[in-house]
Amino acid sequence: MAHGRRKKKLHFSKIYTFHCGKASLEHDEHSQIGGPGFSRVVFCNEPESFDSSIHNYPNNYVSTTKYTLATFIPKSLFEQFRRVANFYFLVTGILSFTPLAPYTAVSAIVPLIFVIGVSMLKEGIEDWRRKQQDIEVNNRTVKVHRGNGVFEPIEWRHLKVGNIVKVEKDDFFPADLLLLSSSYEDAVCYVETMNLDGETNLKLKQALEVTSSLVEDSHFKDFKATIRCEDPNANLYTFVGSMDYEEQQHPLSPQQLLLRASKLRNTDYVYGAVVFTGHDTKVMQNATDPPSKRSRVERKMDKVIYFLFAVLFLMAFVGSVVFGVTTNKDLKNGIMKRWYLRPDDSKVFFDPKKSTIAAFLHFLTALMLYSYLIPISLYVSIEIVKVLQSHFINQDIEMYYEEADKPAHARTSNLNEELGQVDTILSDKTGTLTCNSMEFIKCSVAGTAYGRGITEVERAMAKKTGSPLPNGVVIGGEENGENVTETSSGIKGFNFTDERIMNGNWVNEPHSDVIQKFFQLLAVCHTVIPEVDEESGNVSYEAESPDEAAFVVAARELGFEFYKRTQTTVSLHELDPISGQKIEREYKILSILEFNSTRKRMSVIVQTEEGKILLLSKGADSVMFPRLARTGNDFEEKTREHIHDYADAGLRTLILAYREIDEEEFQNFNERFNTARNAVSADRETLIEEVAETIEKDLILLGATAVEDKLQRGVPECIDKLAQAGIKIWVLTGDKMETAINIGFACSLLRQGMEQIMINLDTPEIKTLEKLDDKKALTKASKECVLKQINDGKAQLAASGAGSEAFALIIDGKSLAYALEDDVKNLFLELAIGCASVICCRSSPKQKALVTRLVKDGTKRTTLAIGDGANDVGMLQEADIGIGISGAEGMQAVMSSDIAIAQFRYLERLLLVHGHWCYRRITSMICYFFYKNIVFGVTLFLFEAYASFSAQTSYNDWFLSLYNVFFTSLPAIALGVFDQDVSARFCLRFPLLYQEGVQNFLFSWLRILSWMFNGVCSGVIVFFFCKKALSHQAFNDDGHPVDFQIFGATMYTIVVWLVNCQMALFISYFTLIQHIFIWGGIALWYIFLMVYGAINPITSTTAYQVFIEELAPAPMYWLLTLFVVASALIPYFTYSAVQMRFFPMYHNMIQWIRVEGRIEDPEYCQMVRQRSIRATTVGPTARLVASRRERHRQTQSI
Fold first, then answer.
1. Within the chain, which residues score under 50 in pLDDT?
2. Are residues 274 and 163 in contact, defined by beta-carbon separation less than 8 angstroms?
3. Using the 8-state DSSP alphabet, how is residue 880 labeled?
4. Would the keyword Ubl conjugation turn up in this protein's UniProt record (predicted)?
């Protein structure tokens, strides 16, 4: 590109649909300016004027933080105390300041402050990082007009509505700007919107012609204009407004709007007027908080906490009743039963005359005393563990995509364990299963098919049937399939080979004139921008989609090189069929009718050097065939056959057609078209479409293109492993049914022998109603048709029973709309659940989200959605887990996802390895927390019962407080971070192991209650063994018996040993850190006991010198510790040994394989694999099994 003060460039006022020139709005009956939703008024270059100030628009400061300095403490505390457990500990902490407390207030408050403080610190650090990002963005500078034609840099946050700014190349736009002019003569600029919508291609913007001459700083000295436009909204692709300038009103469109967070590219500078600032900008209007997602394990954990609360209240109630009855009997006829409490002269707590009140007060005391049943550090421990687990996911080198330098990225740590419970995967196709890197591989021109390339789908189909490929190679098995080499030109986007039309040979073909028009159309009908390397002379292309680039590259490689755009022309180097020489040919661009998802086609009107006006059009077959002329299309049937074959081969097709237009028809169209595109109204698109319909008709067919979107590497193998793990896979795609079906075969979602249940509206009755245009009758008939097909499908499933036959459900978008209606969707879901594979074709983004919601709500199982484009965002946010592919369609899906990966194949390791590990670690950690707290709580309860429920605690206050926080929590955290029941290699080798999470075996109520029962048993053993061993005898050499301080310290020591040794027994995979935490926790207890006991007795109270003077010298203390710990572990050890040996779970069986050295024993490994919860019905493995079964059946029949 040329450089200089003013670049010459293409005249996009002639190209782009939304050229807004000199048209007046005086007679525009569609105008809505000034009405509701269109009330914004901007006074350009006058941000400080009175008229500007009365509107009170927000400044340009943007904040994405959750808290401010003033709100952090109250809001963060509110967030913490929304958790019922934290709120409970707050209440008990407050009550600890009353005489009711069985312990000191400080010992109750400090652990709570520590736990809440850690959580708040984590929140604060995360928010501070967001704050730092905000500061960096708000302090960026941009040049702003300060008056007298002088531009000075100011910080973004100081911008105001109405400011004139100058943005230079590669800078971000600081606010939503109205483009006034640029360094190009035609006032165009290139914009990268990756941060906004995730798209990597450059967008073209163009200013109004009336402001395009404002190209110097000094030109803005006296510039004044008034903009009236729509109010702030979240729609990135619309903008309706007008600008009053030089006493004329000019319509505005999205073509003039430069959005905040976009970047200026390939343009030296632009001038713009600030229209929306700060949180009024479209990017901030779109910055809604993602839906809050909580894992099923976490929600179930809340229920367990509530259960423990119920147990706690029951224990307190029973104790209070017993205490009340006992207190009432303390003083009868002057005889004092518990004389040491002085019931004749007692306070209300032990007053026999007020036993009911005493019982109630004891109830409150017991609620505080038994609070140690609830693990105060559980929530914060889980948060720490999940953050560390996420770090390991991010650092996994096996999920690092070196080609794009993209590792896996867990964007949230809330759902780690949910990765181990996925029942259904809902996947996009293009860019997710495929590469979204289009290659031109085949075409049909004048009824003749060209292109000898072999697609992946053709290979898969040939492998499936054993039939020969077009080149004569027969694929009968895996070995032959691998020997078929892929022919590739080495040119990105071009994988075409056919000697009939390559190297200029097309001139010898029977329809060479049609072939010439075909490739001329490919080289001209697009919005691609050429970039010529001045040194090498090579031409590269900047295209809005991979398809566009592939078409232009194909045209170039076949002799029609698009190399230049000027203000009004497109220039080609093309082969002259008469002279056989390359010549330059120029086409004058008169208008472009853009492609969009509604039109499904694009057209360009050009004038040739000979003066002919041509309409060149390309689009989907569904919209192009109805627009062909009734005569003159002799090879339409042949072309239809070819595109059907191309769809069977998994290719994306477009129809190419043209027609010649006379001057009068074009002028008439152009006048109406300009009126429609200059309309300032929300229905501008509809008006343009109505006018376009009048010109895009009576087309002459040239042929069809076929491009291949290759499967990503490892997709079939990944799907095979996921299917073996029992995960169901649905594909939701916008492609045609034939293309989707054949991609399904290529990636092994479908296989030979699988019964296909097709639901569509391609029936004669429906087609007749479509022609009659009776919408009411059509809707009714369509719904009835879909309902009938669903019921027929269910009947097929019922007829097959529990047989080995697998079904695949394939439904198109039109049918899906009816299948998702309230009275039909449950029937549809029942049918879909019964099928091995589900493929939804022609699905809109909204339908993808609705299907995801239906599966999630209908099955009550964990759903995972995976996609790579902006059209997948709704699906990702609706699913329990959203996985974004950081691929060719930008970062929109990634920004809306929970976890980002670079390739679909990494999903295998993410789920089967990390998912299984995280699920097992978190659930085991939670069960262990409940176990250790119940052991502790049971000893408290039994001692209080032993002390006639007098609220006497057996432990020192600080023993109580530090049990959860220091002596037992770190081993649990190490379990949650490092433990592995089986290695990653075995997780992948035996994918069925994943079903332990899907079926929730490791966190079922049976397992939770069994751990609680283990805790109760351990607590009972500890208390009664200690009581029996220490009662009524001398404890040490001086002959003193045991008092409650010694009893409590001894029992506490045993509990610390017990729960840590229980952890050592439970762990499957020891690391140095786990050894340090387990044995270090025990050592820490002894160190604490000595240090705390050395403090003055006012502080240490019952712990004063208890270890040095009483416990350490007594052999009974050490012997009792050893004996009771071993006794309490015997029930768990016995149960585990019996289960491991005689009733092993699936992971136990795999552990036996490793222990017994039978890793290489294929028969035993196969036997373990066959302990399947469900038969594998999709994937290469299922295909192989079905093939063997079919051969066996044929052998038996012979």
1. 1-5, 8-31, 472-487, 804, 1172-1175
2. yes
3. S
4. no
